[in-house]
Write a structure and sequence with these properties.
Layout: H1 8-15, E1 26-28, E2 37-41, E3 44-53, H2 60-73, E4 79-88, H3 94-111, E5 114-122, E6 130-140, E7 155-159, H4 164-173, H5 175-182, H6 184-192, H7 200-209, E8 213-216, H8 221-233, E9 236-240, H9 248-257, E10 270-274, H10 279-288, E11 293-300, E12 304-308, E13 311-314
Parallel strand pairs: 4-5, 9-12
Antiparallel strand pairs: 1-2, 2-3, 3-6, 4-6, 7-10, 7-11, 8-10, 9-11, 12-13
Helix pairs in contact: 2-3, 2-7, 4-6, 4-9, 5-6, 7-10
Length: 327
């Protein structure tokens, strides 16, 4: 199989079909495009998400916090707790483990999220440090946003710029090579994007204003996230390429490595759908918090397309992320 998360067909054939026990307390269960599980706790719902960090070594502690907290935020929920499992190869030093926890501690403090437990182990089963994070949030039950909620006619917005996380990871992992190609200043700006990978603020804003669905843009990039959102909701989408914001640093790095920025991992970017009459209010609320928001398309009855001028290209299901061509 290819490197990266399993494709949707395999998920259905070898994973989902074996999940046969269902409890009435579970409000949202595993499905293509769904970021979180949601469990009924009376007036409140408990929202949970888990993810590993495998695509980078240098910023693994920082990314582990944000990747799971972002999933919880995509349900319109503020994350409150985090559990971390650290698996490190033989020969790992105490300083390296401490650096992972230093990063995780700093980022969780910024988000006001407590690290409430976990596990740390040295094992021959891995050849680099792997961190798996589980985030937990609480929300009033009727205010939880699910990926499957997108409605025909909704505007499609994204925050920040496509390929954000992938740009930062590649810059961190290949600083020397890229400095010779695009200059030290631009490489540093690309690396700084690692500080922009939280979507917790926009998730909370979206949940408060009544987005119909949200999906953080991770492996598979913008187009992968768009396909998953549509698959979850049973709808179509039209995205206009000319409206998709891409940072010049991302364009440079993707040009050097021959990558598609729309298929590059993009934690830090949130895909949102919202009724048209609420679109301007959402954009204003994002702007007030200093968050770039852009309308890039619309939800349709059927068909999933990227529109490039007069050309209409069908959006295919997500495959191995562009990041794995480099890292």
């Amino acid at each position: 199989m290819k490197v990266g998360k399993l494709d949707t067909d395999l998920l259905r054939k070898i994973v989902f079909r074996h999940i046969t026990c269902q409890r009435e307390e579970v409000l949202v269960r595993p499905g293509v495009g769904e970021d979180c599980a949601v469990v009924d706790f009376g007036d409140y719902a408990c929202v949970l998400s888990t993810d590993p960090i495998t695509g980078t070594a240098s910023e693994v502690g920082r990314l582990a916090v944000h990747i799971s907290c972002n999933d919880v935020a995509s349900n319109g929920v503020e994350p409150l707790g985090l559990m971390l499992t650290i698996m490190a190869p033989e020969g790992t030093t105490a300083d390296e483990i401490e650096e992972v926890m230093r990063q995780a501690g700093e980022e969780s403090k910024k988000l006001n999220v407590e690290i409430i437990g976990g596990h740390t182990e040295i094992t021959s089963a891995v050849n680099r440090i792997i961190v798996s994070a589980t985030a937990i949030g609480r929300q009033i039950k009727n205010r939880v946003v699910a990926t499957c909620g997108a409605q025909v006619g909704d505007l499609v917005l994204m925050t920040k710029t496509a390929g954000l996380e992938g740009t930062a990871i590649i810059a961190h992992e290949n600083t020397g090579v890229l400095t010779g190609y695009m200059g030290a200043d631009m490489v540093e700006r690309a690396k700084y994007m690692m500080n922009m990978i939280s979507v917790v603020p926009e998730g909370i804003i979206g949940g408060a204003l009544g987005t119909s669905s949200m999906h953080d843009i991770t492996e598979g990039g913008l187009l992968g996230a768009a396909w998953e959102l549509c698959e979850a909701a049973g709808v179509g989408i039209e995205i206009h390429l000319k409206h998709v914001p891409i940072a010049v640093e991302t364009e440079k790095i993707c040009g050097y490595y021959h990558l598609d920025p729309l298929r590059l991992i993009s934690s830090g970017c949130m895909l949102m759908t919202i009724p048209e009459e609420k679109g301007c209010e959402l954009l204003r609320a994002l702007e007030e918090k200093g968050i770039q928001g852009t309308v890039i398309g619309r939800i349709t009855n059927e068909g999933r397309y990227l529109i490039d001028g007069e050309e209409k290209v069908e959006i295919s299901p997500p495959e191995s992320d562009e990041l794995y061509k480099v890292v």
